[in-house]
Amino acid sequence: MTSVKEKLLEELLLEEETVQQNEIVLFNDDVNTFDHVIDTLVAVCEHTPEQAEQCSIIVHHNGKCTVKTGEYNDLKPRCSKLLQAGLSAEII
């Protein structure tokens, strides 16, 4: 017999699986400055300046970096704002 705690944990895990998580991936380019990328990530993705700086460095060295994870409906307008700011990003 499963305990109430185990049953609740199973239900929580099942619920988490049904919520599809997507990611905004930011890609490197030769156009935007570090400052522009950092400022845009702070404004659009609600990063701290430190998070935004780390992401910009990762993008610069690896060519891409996941900058936001969440539900598609939350990410879509954010990704659009990144694109409008001249950054290269997509939702996966």
Automatic annotation (TrEMBL):
List the SUPFAM superfamilies: ClpS-like (SSF54736)
Please indicate which superkingdom the organism of origin belongs to.
Bacteria
The biological process GO terms on file are:
protein catabolic process; proteolysis
- Domain Adaptor protein ClpS core, by residue range, is 21-85
Q: Which InterPro entries has this protein been placed in?
A: ClpS_core, Ribosomal_bL12_C/ClpS-like
For whether the record's keyword set contains Hydrolase, the answer is: yes
GO MF terms held by the record = peptidase activity
Keywords recorded for this protein, A-Z: Hydrolase, Protease
Q: Does Hydrolase appear among the keywords? A: yes
Protein's name in the database: ATP-dependent Clp protease adaptor ClpS
The species this protein belongs to is Costertonia aggregata
